[in-house]
Amino acid sequence: MSAVAEAPVAATADTRKAGDWLLVAAAILLCVWVLLPIYLLIVNALSSPEEVTAFPKRFFPSFDIGSLSFFINFAGVASALWNSVLVATLTMILSIGFGAPAGYALSRFDFPGKGTFRFLVLMTRAFPLPLLALPLAVMFIRTGLDDTALGLALVHTTLALPFAVLITFSLFSGIPVELEEAAWTLGCTRWQAFRKVILPLALPGIAASAVFAFTISWNEVFAAAVLTIENRTLTAFLLQSLGESPLYLKFAGGAALVVPALIFIFAVRKYLFAMWGIANR
Amino acid sequence: MNGKALPYLLLMPATLFLGVFFLYPFVLVAFEAVTRDGAFTLDNFRTMAGSWKFPATVRNTLLLAAIVVPIQLAMALLMASIVSRLETGRSGALYIFAIPLGISDLAAGLIWLAIFDQSGFLNTLLSSLGIVDRPVMFLGYQSKLTIFIAVALAEIWRATAIMMVILVAGMGLIPREYYEAAEVFGAGPWKRFLRITLPLLRPSLQTAIILRVILAFEVFAVVAALGGTNLPVLMGETYNWQFTLQDRNVAAASALLILAISIGFTLFFLRVLRVPKEARI
Question: Do A277 and B168 touch (CB under 8 A)?
């Protein structure tokens, strides 16, 4: 081995190493960019009301629950939280209930009209769906659905249903049809084969898309603010009290919105690609 | 049960739902926009366009999209490239990058309010560094530029993740062999990115851009949390027409304008980033 032959190899190794360091540094920097603002909100939520409005600010929480307990005891917050959960649960049930059968049909059958249906589902993407709340507000007053959890859940379902269809479609497509056929030859009916063979395999994915539907509804602001008056959801409540509410109420409310969302995203992290990446192609 | 009828039966709930809560409201909103008290008229559009806020509203919305979306595209490409090249900590980085996906736009607005508020963290940092003597009012009615910057930052922070996830999924579909071949012929990382990744990523880029541009025109709660009414945007004005001004015909006209812009841009990007059938992976 001579020094002449070694030099270029060492140089490439050096550039590669430098490149690796740059990669890691960029990754860390971007993680800080995402996490730091959330951390600062949590600092505010875990400080007393006086500290939140004081200046200068401390960059560490004092773990005082003053802001949070003020928020929870504020008139309307408890019912707003409950409404948010109720609407999101209804959205979850409706979008999986309507979406999963459609996803199954798309994955297992070839039939005329399949393309049209897929087009209808994909078309929903090209529209700002929350705007639908405006005409529906009138329709709901006529049918008695105005200011109800179900009315708002129906609008949120238009947001979540396309996802549910596309996610369950890719889930069912990933389960070999041979498994189902084997069950049929062993004497299962179509429904039994589905329930005993396919459903257990698809269940974790279906649960993940249910969580996703819940999150979509939990986070939605515009339709919620348009369609609810007395029975406001948490987002509608926070939006409509932005003008008059004190800072610590806003930040505690923001934290109450963010923390469940963090848990949801963590719960479905394995399925993130099936849900956004692949479902969007 | 007849095998031919089964797929239609499974699709029926979802189709009926989308018919009633997606297609029908669009007919309704279009109808409300061009009528007043039952008679056909274009007055709603005239009223909307005649409002003194209207030019600023359109300008703010378009300018925000024009500034935010390209930055997000670049950041999403960077994040996706980092994630696909990272060897250790890949799934951790991916989860952290994806967190804003689950965060409501209202919560994102409140998060950035904690930073830009007069008693917020940015002022604390600036005064401890001795850059300012006393806290600056970043979000007052006289500081439109800083409101705009804060809204743009919050939007970039919140909605880059959605593009990133689509692009990561798209990059996963590009065969490794292409990169290996390019490396053999001496192409560096930058050249490989330009000549392989970008062209083959076109379908994902198209989806990501269309989705993101539509969401950019829907910007609402972030602006409400940070700027109140100091930075009027289209969606916020629609909300105002419906609630503060109680005129749902003009609100419908405003909604129709947002729809028209969204559809226009969707068609534009479908055309510009068109992928020929034979060039798909």
Answer: yes
Q: pLDDT grade, residue A123 (50/70/90)?
A: confident
Q: Which of B106, B139, B193 to mutate to test the interface with A (most CBs of A within 10 A)?
A: B106
pLDDT in tens, B141-195: 778 888 999 999 999 999 898 899 889 888 888 888 888 899 898 888 888 888 8
Below-50 pLDDT ranges, chain B: 1
Q: Please tell me the distance from the alpha carbon of residue B193 to that of residue B250, in angstroms, as a whole number.
A: 48
> Are the CB atoms for B57 and B173 separated by under 8 Å?
no
Are residues A135 and B252, on separate chains, in Cβ contact within 8 Å?
Answer: yes
> Does A4 score more than 60 pLDDT?
no
Q: Does the pLDDT value for residue A3 go beyond 90? A: no
Helix (H) or strand (E) holding A272: helix A272-272
Q: Which of B78, B95, B111, B164 to mutate to test the interface with A (most CBs of A within 10 A)?
A: B111
A265 to B220: CB separation less than 8 angstroms, yes or no: no
Domain boundaries, chain A: 3-45, 69-278
**Which pair of tokens denotes residue A235?**
């987002």
Within 8 A of A272 by CB-CB distance, chain B residues are 94, 98, 101, 165
Q: Determine the Cα angle at B76 with ends B211 and A22, to 5°.
A: 175
Q: Where are the domains of chain B?
A: 43-279
Question: How far is the C-alpha of A12 from the C-alpha of A201, rounded, in Å?
Answer: 47
> Nearest CA to A248 among A119, A87, A68, A83?
A68
CA distance A75 to chain B (A): 20
Q: List the single residue in A with minimal CA-CA distance to B5.
A: A111
Could you report the per-residue pLDDT of A130-172, keeping only the tens digit for each?
A: 888 888 888 888 888 888 999 999 999 998 998 888 888 888 8
Q: Are B247 and A107 in contact, with CB atoms under 8 Å apart? A: no
Q: Domain B43-279: what homologous superfamily?
A: MetI-like (1.10.3720.10)
Query: What does the alpha-carbon distance between residue B60 and residue B68 come to, in Å, rounded to a whole number?
Result: 12
- Measure the CA–CA gap between B112 and B224, rounded to whole angstroms: 12
ipTM of the shown complex = 0.87
Q: CB of B50 within 8 A of CB of B247?
A: no
Indicate the burial class of B110 (C-beta count within 10 angstroms; 0-12, 13-18, 19 or more).
Answer: buried
CATH 3.40.20.10 fits A69-278, yes or no: no
Among A162, A151, A157, CA closest to A226: A151
What is the pTM assigned to this prediction? 0.87
Report the gap between the CA of B52 and the closest CA in chain A (Å).
22
Output the average pLDDT for chain A: 85
Residue of B224, B243, B127 lying closest to A250 (CA atoms): B224
Instruction: Give me the residue from A226, A250, A265 closest to B99, CB to CB.
Output: A265
What are the C-alpha distances in Å from A103 to residues A143, A165, B73?
30, 5, 31
Interface test with A, best of B1, B10, B11 (most A CBs within 10 A): B11
SS (H, E, C) A26-66: HHHHHHHHHHHHHHHHHHHHCCCHHHHHCCCCCCCCCCCCH
